[in-house]
Design goal:
alpha/beta, Rossmann fold, 7-stranded parallel beta sheet, 7 strands, 42% helix, SDR family oxidoreductase
């Protein structure tokens, strides 16, 4: 029976949204491989929490911004899947890893743009391409965008533009990978209390209140508002949902 268990690969799973996605998927009975960039101890803690839920948890180091490392990462992933889960394939890929340079349009530097582009567009584009041969038929891909593609908030021009590109890419992937029975959807979280941007949404009371006031449900989001939706998209219940953008923002900027 264990060989039929579904497996999800989540990038940026040691903290914030990615951690909640990994744990939500584990609660649904999936084994989890997740990546982390620098937070080794946090990653070990997430592995422990996944195992406490009765699932296998594997943490692998990956810098999503460095596409030259993807060949080596793919080899490591394959050997870990083989040694720990008796397979060289998996079912779901969640492209979550991210960070934000917050700057007004006129102030953002080319280096800052390139750093974000590598993590939010080039990285997930080529990582998905690299891992595609290992995604099982009837599996799926979940890309992560942002509410900022629908409404404009100064300071996020480059970040939102790159997320908009991921939304377009999602449709193309869904169209082209349909022949392999791989579904591709994109989730677009609103403002969430995590440590992104130095924890600004979580720790800056004024910003938190303002964002809450712009949201129909009267608060900002929490990581646990997001993970369950990703887990749902990686389930048979979502088997006919394809090429869709699901905004998870509590009704932000309506």
């Amino acid at each position: 029976m264990s060989s039929q268990k579904k497996i999800a690969v989540v990038t940026g799973g040691s903290r914030g949204l990615g951690k909640n996605m990994a744990l939500s998927l584990a609660k649904k009975g999936l084994d989890i491989v997740f990546t982390y960039n620098s937070q080794n101890e946090a990653a070990e803690e997430v592995v422990k929490q996944i195992e406490e839920l009765g699932q296998k948890g594997i943490a692998l180091k990956l810098d999503v911004s460095d596409s030259s490392s993807f060949d080596e990462f793919t080899k490591t992933l394959t050997s870990e899947l083989q040694s720990q889960l008796n397979t060289d394939r998996f079912d779901f890929l969640v492209n979550n890893a991210g960070f934000i340079h917050y700057a007004e349009f006129e102030d953002l530097t080319e280096d800052q743009f390139t750093e974000m582009e590598n993590v939010h567009l080039k990285g997930p584009f080529f990582l998905t391409q690299k891992l595609l041969p290992q995604i099982n038929p009837f599996g799926g891909i979940v890309n992560v965008s942002s509410g900022l593609t629908r409404f404009a908030t100064p300071g996020f021009a480059a970040y939102a533009a790159l997320k908009g590109a991921m939304e377009v890419l999602t449709k193309y992937q869904a169209k082209e990978l349909g022949k392999r029975n791989i579904r591709v959807n994109v989730v677009a979280p609103g403002a969430i209390e995590t440590d992104i941007m130095g924890g600004a949404v979580r720790d800056n009371a004024e910003m938190n209140q303002y964002l809450a006031s712009q949201t129909a449900l009267g608060r900002v989001g929490l990581p646990e508002d997001i993970g369950g939706v990703v887990a749902f998209l990686c389930s048979d219940a979502a088997g006919w949902i394809n090429a869709q953008r699901l905004e998870i923002s509590g009704g932000s900027n309506l």
